[in-house]
Specification:
Number of domains: 3
Strand content: 15-25%
Helix content: 40-55%
Largest sheet: 6 strands, mixed
Keywords: Membrane, Signal, Transmembrane, Transmembrane helix
Distance between the termini: 39 Å
Bound molecules: 2-acetamido-2-deoxy-beta-D-glucopyranose
Number of strands: 13
Number of helices: 15
Order of helices and strands: HHEHEHEHEHHHEHEHEEEEEEHEHHHH
Strand order of the largest sheet: 2-1-3-13-4-8
Structural class: alpha/beta
């Protein structure tokens, strides 16, 4: 019996030599753990993507930031990085050259609003206007979009149906909102003075054809469609008095290069809310103004190395966070036919590395066959040596039959366990028979 396990593990080892690609999370982490002293570069498209999975990566991972997806895929191709991390790439779009697998970490996305000014809870915000009614109205609009199927239609139209859904405002009845005449703050401003809902975005960025390319004058894709649907629902809302808010509502986007400047605009009241794709599980760490002393920074922020910083705090707590608008599971992208798992001598030589692929693979196959035939030979050998314990009718059966018989006789406890498992396996089958 032990010999069988030994042979099996040899076969598995041989298989693992042939399997040179990283195709799933386990293989990725196994590789990183194998050589803790070796540095592995992993590519990211944004700091936020890195923040989300940082704590799960090992110390030997080096972060490489890329300007855009094309550049990152090139680096995966020439093996300067072992894997790329992305939230927006669809496997079917970049197949057949890459493996795409989930990190199993989900990042919820939502719109963020400034909190209401409060001397103890939120002294860091502009005192001018209240975001409370706008916050309630946006939540109601988001829940409506998700309930009536607009959200699902938009996902289908943009080939995003396999998106992970995390909906934090799931209920079958509309969320209550104040009467139009009773609204206050930003919402009143928007409804009564015909001003636009001002939305702050990052970039402009290209999130791809499915999610939206904001470099276009009129962006199309899932995120832009979602914001349009939310603004439309906002105009259709009505309080208990049944008076509709106003169908002519519209929105306007302002873009900010960094999250710091986006959040500064939000806290200053320059924008009403952020766009729908902001990750809420990423820390907020300050508005980033240049400063020379603390008095130049807003309350709760300090002047550190010339910029206003805040001790890390989840965005979802520092701001008003609406119902989730979307969510992402961060994905790893690795190369097919890569040479990372094939020793070091030829692997990291970018120009000639891929040429080694077929040769190494053949060596692997030959090894597998040698091991397979070795196992059969070993089995026969054991049998011949133990022949005296057997009756003649056993040896008449084929080699594998005898081998199996040998297990039965030498290892009774395991045999007992096998029959126990048989019992478990059989019971569902019996059930199927009885129902059909
Ligand atoms: C983005 O990718 C394109 C190729 O599609 C490349 O020409 C361009 O230089 C890249 N942009 C940046 C900022 O690296
Ligand atoms: C690999 O691709 C990246 C991105 O295009 C590039 O910056 C890097 O220089 C390339 N490395 C080699 C060795 O070709
Ligand atoms: C907010 O207050 C500041 C100064 O207190 C003022 O300059 C600004 O115009 C106000 N903004 C709005 C929207 O009222
Ligand atoms: C979505 O998928 C359909 C069919 O699979 C295809 O015709 C269409 O071009 C895709 N749309 C996008 C934006 O990729
Ligand atoms: C809404 O405004 C009306 C007057 O316009 C007032 O009678 C009513 O009490 C207000 N309702 C609330 C909930 O504030
Ligand atoms: C609407 O605009 C007028 C003048 O343009 C201003 O006096 C008024 O306060 C504004 N109303 C709101 C709710 O902002
Ligand atoms: C916030 O943290 C990021 C990542 O560590 C850093 O790049 C950025 O400069 C920080 N911002 C502030 C205002 O400290
Ligand atoms: C901070 O800097 C400003 C402008 O440089 C100066 O007026 C102020 O006195 C400084 N405050 C402190 C506490 O040093
Ligand atoms: C600030 O500066 C100090 C020393 O000048 C340095 O040790 C520290 O890492 C810097 N912090 C940041 C966030 O850059
Ligand atoms: C593996 O390759 C890298 C880059 O070519 C090199 O720096 C490192 O020393 C190599 N390690 C071994 C064990 O050969
Ligand atoms: C890659 O191989 C070429 C040719 O054998 C050699 O000249 C070059 O130094 C190698 N590069 C590395 C990084 O090992
Ligand atoms: C590596 O590849 C380049 C171009 O593909 C070729 O000119 C060179 O001779 C190759 N070097 C070796 C050692 O095979």
């Amino acid at each position: 019996m032990h010999r069988i396990y030994l042979s099996l593990s040899i076969i598995l080892f041989a298989l693992s030599i042939i399997q040179c690609d990283i195709t799933n999370l386990d293989e990725f982490f196994t590789l990183l753990k194998q050589s803790p002293l070796k540095k592995y570069s992993v590519g990211f498209l944004s700091q936020a993507n890195f923040e989300v999975i940082k704590r799960y990566l090992l110390n030997n991972v080096e972060r490489v930031l890329f300007e855009n997806k094309t550049e990152m895929l090139k680096a995966i191709e020439n093996e300067t990085i072992i894997a790329g991390v992305s939230t927006g790439i669809l496997a079917e779009d970049i197949a057949p050259n890459y493996h795409v697998f989930s990190s199993l970490l989900v990042s919820p996305q939502a719109m963020l609003l400034a909190p209401e000014y409060d001397p103890t809870l939120a002294p860091y915000v502009s005192k001018n206007e209240s975001s409370t009614d706008l916050f309630d109205a946006l939540n109601a609009a988001i829940a409506d979009v998700q309930r009536d199927g607009t959200h699902e239609t938009s996902l289908t139209l943009n080939n995003r149906t396999n998106l992970i859904r995390v909906e934090t405002c799931l209920q079958e009845t509309p969320l209550p909102v104040p009467n139009r005449d009773n609204t206050t703050g930003y919402l009143r401003h928007i409804l009564f003075n015909k001003s636009k809902l001002i939305i702050g975005g990052l970039g402009p960025k290209d999130f791809g054809v499915h999610d939206g390319n904001y470099n276009d004058k009129s962006p199309t894709g899932f995120y832009p469609a979602l914001l349009d649907a939310i603004v439309k629902k906002l105009g259709e809302l009505k309080g208990p008095d049944e008076i509709i808010y106003g169908k002519e509502l519209s929105s306007e986007r302002k873009f900010f290069r960094t999250p710091e400047s986006l959040f500064r605009a939000l806290l200053n009241g320059d924008i009403h809310a952020t766009d729908v794709y902001i990750f809420i599980n990423v820390p907020y760490n300050g508005t980033g103004e240049t400063c020379s002393n603390n008095s130049q920074c807003r309350t709760r922020e300090t002047c550190t190395n010339g910029t206003c910083t805040h001790p890390e705090r989840p965005r979802s707590l520092h701001f008003r966070t609406t119902c989730t608008t979307a969510s992402r599971d961060t994905k790893f992208i690795t190369k097919k036919d890569s040479s990372f798992l094939r020793g070091n001598s030829s692997s990291n030589n970018q120009t000639n590395g891929t040429r080694q692929t077929p040769k190494t693979r053949w060596i692997g196959f030959i090894l597998l066959f040698v091991v397979l035939f070795g196992t059969i030979f070993l089995g026969l050998l054991i049998l011949v040596r133990r022949k005296k314990y057997y009756r003649i009718e056993h040896t008449v059966q084929g080699g594998f039959g005898k081998f199996a018989r040998l297990q039965e006789e030498s290892e009774l406890p395991i045999e007992g366990m096998d029959s126990f498992e048989d019992h478990i396996v059989q019971s569902p089958r019996d059930n199927i028979n009885s129902t059909s």
